[in-house]
Amino acid sequence: MTKIYLLTIPVIIGIVTGMSMVYFPENQDSKLLTVQKLIHNGSPIMGDPNAPITILEWGDYQCTFCYKFHQNTLDIIYEEYIKTGKVKLVFKDFPLNGSDSFLAAEAAYCADDQEKYWEYHDELYNNWGGERTGWITRESLDKFAQTVNLDLDEFNKCLNEKKYQNKVITLHEFGKEVGIDATPSFLVFNDNKIIKIRGNQPLEVFLKTFAEL
Fold first, then answer.
1. Which of 121, 49, 39 shows the shortest CA–CA distance to 88?
2. What pLDDT score was predicted for residue 30?
3. Which tens digits make up the pLDDT trace of 27-42?
4. Cβ atoms 120, 150 nearer than 8 A
5. Which of 38, 69, 81, 129 could be a cystine partner for 200, CB 3.0 to 4.6 Å?
6. pLDDT tens by residue, 66-107
7. Residue 6 covered by a domain
8. CA 38 to each of CA 9, 27, 33, 173, 178: distance values in angstroms, whole numbers, following the listed order
9. Where is the Thioredoxin domain (predicted)?
10. Residue 183 · residue 192 · CB < 8 Å
């Protein structure tokens, strides 16, 4: 199994804006930080599965800065790096904002049962209504499902049975195990190195990270 080798030197950049890019610390459990374990159990891969660089995004559908990343920086990364086969992206849920965030995450995986994960994921962020404001309800989730042409009976059966509740809980716990404590957070890696980016950082931070891998 391919291991991701860990570096020990922290790098802090852009102090004025509070951005940070750090190499993972030496005391992090390397058994958790294999390419396979980092990708396993997350979203479908966006982009070429053989792309040399992976972005693992940890997000919450109610998170303000996750929404801003999705609406701005991700579009450029997608056009310039994901579509061209240089980078792939995997999303894992880190629901910090309570039960509504868990429910939205479960709904996205129910959509994945109908091969509409990314369409539903995008629909959630496109309809973002703030943090803990009550915009995520069974009614709104059904509306989003209809917008992306899901079979509504199948979708609601999945939610009613809580088919993906344990999956989302497991992802949240795994995130905490590997040092995730805020959203969005990103682990950007290849077979040899892993770099953590914390927060919704400017595009330049991601470009600098790609150049270092």
1. 49
2. 60
3. 455 667 888 999 999 9
4. yes
5. 69
6. 999 999 999 999 999 999 999 999 999 999 999 999 999 999
7. no
8. 21, 17, 6, 13, 9
9. 24-213
10. no
What CATH number does residue 129 fall under?
A: 3.40.30.10
CA 113 to chain centre: 18
140/98 Cα distance (integer angstroms): 17
Residue 90 CA to its chain's centroid (Å): 6
pLDDT in tens, 163-193: 999 999 999 999 999 999 999 999 999 999 9
The answer to whether residue 15 is domain-embedded is: no
Q: How many residues does the chain have?
A: 213
For residue 143, give the amino acid letter: K
Q: Beta-carbon neighbour count of residue 202 at 10 Å?
A: 13
Domain presence at residue 12? no
**CA separation for the pair 74, 65 (Å, rounded):** 12
Residue 174 belongs to a domain: yes
Peptide bond into 184 cis (omega under 30): yes
**141 lies in which domain range?**
20-212
Determine whether 88 is exposed, middle or buried from the number of CB atoms within 10 Å of its CB (0-12, 13-18, 19+).
buried
DSSP 3-state of 168: helix
